[in-house]
Amino acid sequence: MDWTSAERKPRPVSRSRRSMMSYLLAGLRAGIERALRGAVEAARPELGLNPDTVIPSFTVEVPREKNFGDFATNLALLLTKPARRSPRQIADILINHLKPEELQVQEVSIAGPGFINFHLHPDWLHGVLPEIEEGGEDYGRSKLGGGRKVQVEFVSANPTGLLHMGNARGAALGDSIAALLSFVGFDVTREFYVNDTGHQIENLALSMEARCLQALGLDCPVPENGYHGEDLIDTAARFLDRYSLFMDADPRERRRALLRFALDEKLEAMRTTLESFGVRYDVWFSEQSLHDRGAVRETLERLRQRGHLYEKDGALWFRAAAFGAAKDEVLVRANGVPTYFAADIAYHKDKFDRGFEWVINIWGADHHGHVARMKGSLAALGYDPDFLEVVIMQLVRLYRDGEIVRMSKRTGQYVTLDELLEDVGRDAARYFFVTRGADSHLDFDLDLAKSRTNENPVYYIQYAHARISSVFRQRAERGSKPRIEEADVSALSEEAERALVRRLADFPEEVALAAFDLAPHRIAHYAHDVAGLFHSFYNAHRILGAGDELEPARLLLAKCTRTVLRSAMSLLGVSAPERM
RNA sequence: GCGCCCGUAGCUCAACGGAUAGAGCGUCAGACUACGGAUCUGCAGGUUGGGGGUUCGAAUCCCUCCGGGCGCACCA
User: Fold this and answer.
1) In chain A, which segments carry CATH 3.30.1360.70?
2) 0.90 exceeded by the pTM?
3) Å: A324 CA to B63 C1'
4) pLDDT in tens, A371-381
5) Torsion of CA A461, A466, A472, A475, to 10 degrees
6) What residue spans in chain A does CATH classification 1.10.730.10 cover?
7) From the CA of A425, how many Å to the C1' of B63?
8) Would residue A382 be called left, alpha or beta, if left means φ above 0 and alpha means ψ between -120 and 50 degrees?
9) For chain B, which bases have at least one atom within 7 A of a protein Cβ?
10) Is CATH 3.30.1360.70 the right assignment for the domain spanning A5-120?
11) pLDDT tens digits, residue range A31-62?
12) Span CA (A506) to C1' (B34), Å
């Protein structure tokens, strides 16, 4: 783990220097890192390092094993080559150039193959709770993003049907990623790209027309490639309700009106569903608008000028293969109609032109084949393709009653997000989707998500939060109120208390790491961890009635735990109930 | 056939290239006469799919094989 993780990955946003935080742990780490750097410089002759030898980039991290200390560095291991000495020898030399007392470090030791372990003075923990108390819901926020503009585009489902489980995973993932990036100081835009033109949309219009005619008693089947979902029957009925002059209208006008009506209704339904899932977008971007204002034509022209297009079989092709894609791609069909990909290139160019410095797309695994050509097209336009980051999300497999639920959009046999929300509820759904890494195949157990038992991990976290709230309710009911403000945190000496405080101190770094790795599942695990430490503490020790010294200190600990749990759950889109 | 992702405890999954691979669930054995038992404590459970390689160090990177998922349209 590394507070400077923003610099580890070769992303466009990574170049600017971090703005340093005052968080305790981060500060202590930075101090140790500086001291180590200084020690290498001072020890150059002893280590046999040339003046121009670059110090390798080393880590100062929290070791997994806690008797390895609070921090450990691999610096000595990395210097073996340039220094031509054994790592333990190097570590020994480095330690002689460190002044631990200046670092709040109690003990420095060499361990294992040559790690240098730092044991902090135990009192450092005393600073943690006051810091959380002061920060409140802002504890963990940072300015690491430097206010740079980031766009997260996710779901972007075809407005031709209802949202399904795959879309739901994308929604949960995208929204949490956006929340994380915002939390660490990026200027985040959540965006939904609306596919409101093209073949699928024409099919939608034709299907609507068929449903209308059916409603009027005519025998008119939905086209083979059309949309057979029953929701369209209702949509058609509502249309007829409103526009009774259906049969008299000019067929072309009629189709346009049908389409407009269906699109509006479908989009509105998606917006409503997503909002009840806790997801709200800043921008709904219309594909059609790109065509309307000539952005697609303009983009094609630019590619042509740069010599990346050619004609074949009457179609216009992009030399995608020259930019790392599997094969070349058609941008304009022989019939003169641009492909979806052509519009998509224009869309991503537009993202560039709007000034985003980092663009994140959440795509399902069934679209992974598009990544190379999308990036290739950006390179062809003269942009840095690394500004685009595509998070590929593996597909969701549903289980009910221990068996796989087969889903097929064609036959309309699939579980919708609306049904999921009704069935298992928002909290469990959001948590389940975001508790696994994006590239892990997700087995979604409907029965487990629905169950209100200890098998369901969502409630474990929420229960910790509700329990803390309950303690404060109890306290309010009782007469005596020791003042939390006068809590003496040094009274917290039990192992369970210290472990919890220690974990709470990790939150700012945990959030930063999760944000830059686009990995909200880290927060899910972290929250579970904190909840577990709290439950252990709670079970072993009294809070109320613990005595004049301990009670206020433990109340403060409980309050800070609640603060962190709330923030973590909020990042995941899970509610933090006062009682359950 | 080619490309991308995955394979870790009985199940679902974690683990910035670091030290003795960790959680939850399940199994088994236990725990408060006061703050919510949707809790806690403990036991058992592993050749990280197989085999090579790189590295001081590999679940992690490279090669190869096996198994699973998903792509490879003038669809989106």
Assistant:
1) 5-120
2) yes
3) 22
4) 999 999 999 99
5) -120
6) 456-572
7) 47
8) left
9) 2-7, 12-16, 18-20, 22-26, 31-32, 34-36, 38-41, 56-57, 68-76
10) yes
11) 999 999 999 999 999 988 888 888 888 999 88
12) 33
